[in-house]
């Protein structure tokens, strides 16, 4: 059974595009807008072990260096010393651009999405310090700190949430 927080986050990753971008750190593709050309060199700084606080608990992400045209990541949320859910994530080079894909899992590793389904975030834009995916932005503050911004939809209202991570040494 999914927790209330897990359902809340599932809503985040279930929507496609917002018609009106009212967020300061998020960008969204128009319906048929193509993604820009990019490769993994623009986000290689994401590699490593990151930890922060969000949703009343600890969040952790571990990203591998680029290999075979992709980076592999794992996420978990721990609240009151209990895992709430996991994500397996990839950022892959596809059609001369990047795509961020993920699948959610309950703490017992039962999946949220259908067997062959993934939640996909197409690349929108790259700057020196930010990589914008459709509704998800990864920002490099320094070599030891990153922010991840996500659009979260709950009960018809969409908000921009910030996850601040510090590198685990």
UniProtKB/TrEMBL annotation:
It comes from the Bacteria. Residues 44-151 form the DUF6265 domain. Pfam families: DUF6265. This is DUF6265 domain-containing protein.
């Amino acid at each position: 059974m999914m927790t209330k927080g897990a359902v809340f986050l599932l809503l985040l990753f279930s929507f496609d595009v917002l018609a009106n971008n009212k967020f300061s750190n998020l960008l969204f593709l128009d319906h048929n807008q193509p993604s820009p050309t990019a490769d993994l060199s623009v986000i290689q700084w994401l590699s490593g072990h990151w930890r922060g606080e969000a949703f009343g608990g600890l969040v952790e992400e571990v990203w591998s260096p680029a290999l075979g045209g992709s980076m592999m990541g794992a996420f978990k949320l721990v609240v009151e010393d209990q895992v709430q859910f996991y994500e397996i994530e990839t950022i892959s080079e596809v059609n001369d651009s990047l795509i961020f894909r993920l699948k959610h899992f309950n703490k017992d590793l039962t999946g949220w999405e259908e067997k062959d389904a993934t939640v996909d975030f197409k690349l929108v834009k790259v700057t020196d310090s930010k990589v914008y995916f459709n509704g998800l932005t990864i920002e490099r503050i320094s070599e030891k700190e990153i922010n991840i911004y996500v659009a979260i939809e709950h009960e018809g209202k969409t908000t921009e949430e910030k996850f601040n991570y510090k590198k685990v040494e």
